[in-house]
Structures are given as C-alpha cells and as structure tokens.
Specification:
Elements: H1 3-14, E1 21-26, H2 39-51, E2 54-63, H3 71-87, E3 93-101, H4 106-112, E4 124-128, H5 135-147, E5 151-155, H6 161-165, H7 168-175, E6 179-181, H8 193-204, H9 220-235, H10 237-252
Parallel strand pairs: 1-2, 2-3, 3-4, 4-5, 5-6
The structure holds fe (ii) ion (FE2).
Length: about 270
C-alpha cells in the first residue's frame, strides 16, 4: 500500500461516525450488579465509550422486585465513577438511574426512589420484561405507567420472546406511550440471529426511539460502534444522530455538549 493510500484509509476510518452520542443504558457502576467488576473496569469502559464518540453515559443499575442494590450503594458507586472521570480528565458527562424489571407494584417504587428514574425531569423509566410476559401484558404495563405520569423507555425489546415472535409489538407499546430503545449491539449479532432480525424489523417499522449500548464490559463499545455504523450504512447518518443524540438528549433534558454539569439524581 502506498503511503498516500495508507493515509486516505486512516482518514476514512477516523471520520467514520464522528458525531457525539449519548448512551442512556450502560452498566459502568463498579461492583453493583453483573456490569463492571471494579473501578479499573469502569475506567476502561468510559475510555472505550469515548472511542465510540459517546460524550454522556447514563450509568444504570439493575432493579428487580426481589433483588436490588440499595440507594446508598448506587450513590457510592456513582461518586466513584465521577471521581475516576475527573482524575483521568475524561471529557464525559454522567448521570445515573436504574433499569427496572417490570412488576405490578413498580409505580410505588418509582414514586419513592428518585434514582430509579432517568433524566432531569425524573419522568422516564427504563423498563425490561421477564421472559414470561406476553404482548398483551407488556402493552397494558406501558399504558398503565404512562397513565401514572411515567414515560416508560422499553430497553432491548428485540431480546423479548413476545417481540421476537411479533416484532410489531414494539410499535404497539410505542403507541401506548412507551419509547423503544434497542441495543445497538444487536444489529451486529451480539444476542444472536433472532435478536438481530427482530432489531432490524423494529428499525424498519420506524418503532425505535433511541439506541444504547447496554454495556457490561469494555468491549461492548466496539460492537455498539459497529451497530451504529450498520444503521448509518442502511438508513443514513441522520437516523443514527436522532437515535443516539437528539432523542436521548430530550430524555436527559439537556445537551451534554452545551451543559456540562452532571445530573445528580440524589438531589
Ligand atoms: Fe441492561
């Protein structure tokens, strides 16, 4: 390869997807669940996110009815990643919330626990479903939450059996007040062929509102970037910008680039 071609190739690679991104769903909090194991891994994950042009991470902790970290534990982990970010001068803003597995009494939990909710206004709730939930129950659940004043953001719908069987279920949840947020990693097969095809159907049907990484380890961000490239190649940069910046900024309630201060859900 001539030197000229070498530089052209480098230039093409580095100008790929150079748009800022907001990742609303990433398990970078150290040692609170099955995400980052320790502070060293959290730092690696933040550095990997920056390489994928992520400028804001909403650090999420799993909440299940029967198993959940205490608020104080999340607060401590969130303080640790902010300190790591500051010490290493990473140009990244951070917020913190929960990914909640839906259960019938979950509204009471949302009302009582501010850190469970996403965004400055505290009205968005990241929701996942257990494998036994069917389409009718999921649609009823998001409708019930919407009526109660919460805006459900359904995470990785492409991984739920009822959506894999009927991808139009994502659009139905959307029409009942939910926002739909597939994992970008699904487009490059991170969860297998069925989840990939389901994510593609959701996108094709116009039912995706945002994309996130659902990162549990640093290498997820390479797949996140590859998933975004896949979407850009098929549907154009504008859609990627809408799903990884415009809509996530609306959910956050601010643009990290213009408003650098962190959103602290504990205030
Ligand atoms: Fe997650």
């Amino acid at each position: 390869m001539s030197l000229f071609n070498f530089w052209r190739k480098k230039e093409a690679a580095s100008s790929e997807q150079p748009f800022p991104k907001v990742d609303l769903h990433a398990h970078i909090l150290p040692d609170v669940d099955d995400g980052s194991k320790d502070e060293a891994m959290s730092l690696e994950m933040m550095e990997a996110a920056l390489k994928a042009y992520v400028v804001h991470i909403n650090a999420t902790a799993h909440h299940r009815n029967t198993l959940s970290p205490e608020t104080a534990e999340i607060q401590d982990a969130f303080s640790k990643i902010k300190a790591l970010r500051d010490k290493n001068l990473l140009p990244l803003s951070l917020s913190c919330s929960m990914e909640t597995e839906f259960y019938p009494e979950v509204e009471t939990f949302f009302k009582d626990c501010r850190v469970s909710l996403t965004g400055k206004a505290g009205k968005y709730a990241l929701i996942e479903f257990t494998s036994d939930v069917n389409q009718q129950a999921a649609v009823a659940a998001v409708f019930q939450l919407s009526l109660s004043g919460f805006r459900p953001v359904v995470v990785h719908p492409e991984r739920f059996y009822f959506v894999q069987r009927h991808p139009e279920a994502a659009g139905e949840m959307q029409s009942r007040g939910a926002l739909i947020m597939p994992n970008a990693t699904s487009f490059v097969g991170h969860y297998g062929q069925v989840a990939k095809e389901t994510a593609e159907s959701i996108l094709k049907n116009g039912a995706a509102d945002a994309l996130s990484s659902d990162a549990h380890r640093p290498d997820y961000y390479e797949q996140y970037a590859a998933g975004c490239r896949w979407v850009a190649k098929k549907y154009g940069d504008k859609l990627v910008n809408d799903l990884t910046w415009k809509n996530p900024c609306r959910i956050l309630g601010y643009e990290p680039e213009t408003e650098r201060d962190d959103f602290d859900p504990f205030l």
